[in-house]
Amino acid sequence: MTKQELCRKALDMRLMSYAPYSHFPVGAALECTDGTVYTGCNIENASYGATNCAERTAVFKAVSEGRKAFKRIAIAGTTKEFCPPCGVCRQVLSEFAPDMEVILVNYDGRTRELTLGELLPCRFGGDKLK
Ligand code: THU
């Protein structure tokens, strides 16, 4: 899948968002190393802390179907500003792919590319538990 197609999927997933409290739809498209793509959207809750971000929705869908090797993720917000992944999502993504590519997409399709290592340096990983 091209970068543009992955970004389009992330942008389109905003339509599936359930965000009645923030009114801030977010979409994500996660590409695995085998080429499969899992999409996600944010799913809010009246108990705000129970909200799930778009990125984690995509990761949990992928892992629950047996995919744990991730190549890149596109994340689309609804504003002119980019929507970088929150700290919890950075940590969850880093569990599986600490150096994956992260593509931020703004509302009119402009992109910014980073690595997860740049977004989460000095991460806490499973190796620290040994
Ligand atoms: N949100 C995401 O889906 N991903 C992020 O990385 C940042 C925040 C969602 C959570 C909540 O539904 C809304 O954006 C406002 O915080």
Query: CATH superfamily, called what?
Result: Cytidine Deaminase, domain 2
Give the class-level CATH name. Answer: Alpha Beta
From N to C, what is the helix and strand string?
HEEHEHEEH
Shape descriptor reads globular
Instruction: List the uncertain runs.
Output: none
Q: How many H/I helical runs?
A: 4
Spatial strand order of the main sheet: 2-1-3-4-5
CATH topology annotation: Cytidine Deaminase, domain 2
Tally of strands: 5
As for the number of domains, it is 1
The helical percent reads 25-40%
Largest sheet: 5 strands, mixed
The assigned structural class equals alpha+beta
Q: What would the average pLDDT be, to the nearest integer? A: 97
Care to describe what's here?
By secondary structure, the chain is an alpha+beta fold. The protein has one domain: 3-Layer(aba) Sandwich (Cytidine Deaminase, domain 2). The chain contains four helices and five strands. A five-stranded mixed beta sheet has the order 2-1-3-4-5. It is globular, with a radius of gyration of 14 Å. The mean pLDDT is 97. The structure holds tetrahydrodeoxyuridine (THU). Tetrahydrodeoxyuridine binds next to helix 2.
Write a concise keyword list for the protein shown above:
28% helix; Cytidine Deaminase, domain 2; binds tetrahydrodeoxyuridine; single chain; 130 residues; alpha+beta; 5 strands; five-stranded mixed beta sheet; globular; 4 helices
